Design the sequence.
């Protein structure tokens, strides 16, 4: 097998042939390498097959280890449990930052599986394609991302980002662009995925800082996360001479209907608009966190005139007073809210939050039309 000459086009054809043959069979492992010269592929072949590619389980004892006829498809004779996959143009992104400039995934609309991943930018590749399918150098497996969504190229001025006619658009720092020159620290939104450019050194240190930041700050709204909120509540709980506090949980009504009617990216815009409205209408000393979806929590570590009822009313009236400003227009929206006084030493902060969230959901269920 050492005489095999690597040819990416031939390897792709062979891999496609194997896939078509065994697409419905269970796959025990997949090797992401483009040729038989790769050591990982060689180890896999030695473990699973006769030295010339015939599965061990099918090798008659009288057959000797002689080379196959010239031109025989070595991969086609592997047993069904083995599929050799080709790689995209660039190697898979490492868990940690390399010496290359990179994009870092901060937010994904469909779950968190990509969050924190680094995508190195290798200028030697040429045009670096970004998209949903595996044939892109930077793969973002999210339904809001087009098959081939955008591209990056490196020139004398730096990295240029281009939208490739995507369905959901490409944004830099909140502005939709067809083409833009990226600067260090820019936020790039590709469909529903938000990335940050880390182009200048020290990159590894900054990646660690961004990952730590993601634990406590919600990327979509710049509000605190649930973890960040609980940390503030616990700091209050352990402080000496603390007064009672206020906690209100609210949820954007009809978010599922908005997603279904207008698309999930419009739903994201509505969540952002709610956060911006809260920033404007909340009284002094009240902080807010995004718990997930369209659900937010408001926290004040000391009493407030009118208490929970006044704060809840101020928020619900303030959201309903005028339409939310979205990128594609304006949208009327309401929120459902429930809250409680938080007494020192009564309950652990996480339990208080869980109790109020459940009360809000019960109230929302009771108000929904039957």
Sequence:
């Amino acid at each position: 097998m050492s005489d095999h000459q690597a040819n990416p086009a031939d390897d792709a054809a062979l891999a496609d042939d194997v896939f078509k043959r065994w697409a419905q069979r269970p796959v025990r492992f997949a090797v992401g390498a483009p040729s038989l010269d790769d050591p990982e592929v060689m180890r896999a072949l030695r473990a699973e097959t006769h030295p010339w590619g015939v599965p061990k389980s099918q090798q008659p004892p009288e057959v000797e280890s002689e080379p196959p006829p010239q031109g025989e498809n070595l991969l086609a004779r592997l047993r069904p449990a083995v599929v050799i996959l080709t790689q995209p143009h660039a190697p898979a992104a490492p868990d940690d930052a390399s010496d290359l400039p990179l994009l870092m995934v901060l937010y994904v609309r469909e779950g968190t599986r990509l969050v924190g991943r680094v995508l190195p930018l290798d200028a030697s590749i040429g045009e670096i394609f970004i998209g949903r399918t595996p044939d892109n150098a930077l793969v973002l497996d999210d339904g809001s991302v087009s098959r081939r969504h955008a591209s990056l190229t490196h020139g004398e001025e730096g990295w240029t980002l281009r939208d490739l006619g995507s369905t959901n658009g490409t944004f830099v720092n909140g502005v939709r662009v067809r083409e833009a020159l990226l600067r260090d620290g820019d936020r790039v939104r590709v469909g529903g995925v938000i990335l940050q450019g880390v182009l200048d050194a020290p990159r590894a240190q900054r990646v660690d800082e961004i990952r730590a930041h993601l634990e406590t700050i919600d990327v979509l709204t710049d509000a605190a996360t649930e973890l960040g909120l609980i940390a503030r509540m616990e700091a209050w709980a352990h402080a000496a001479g603390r007064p009672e506090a206020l906690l209100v949980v609210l949820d954007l009504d009809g978010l599922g209907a908005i997603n279904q009617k207008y698309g999930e990216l419009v739903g994201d815009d509505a969540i952002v608009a709610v956060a911006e409205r809260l920033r404007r209408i909340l009284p002094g000393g009240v902080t807010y966190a995004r718990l997930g979806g369209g659900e937010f929590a408001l926290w004040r570590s000391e009493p407030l005139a009118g208490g929970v009822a006044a704060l809840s009313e101020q928020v619900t009236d303030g959201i309903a007073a005028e339409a939310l400003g979205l990128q594609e227009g304006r949208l009327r929206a309401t929120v459902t809210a429930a809250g409680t006084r938080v007494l020192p030493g009564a309950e652990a902060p996480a339990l208080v939050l869980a109790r109020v969230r459940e009360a809000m959901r019960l109230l929302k269920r009771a108000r929904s039309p039957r």
Observations:
- The first strand starts at residue 29 and ends at 32.
- DSSP finds eight helices and 19 strands in the chain.
- Residues 234 and 349 are 6 Å apart (CA to CA).
- The radius of gyration is 27 Å.
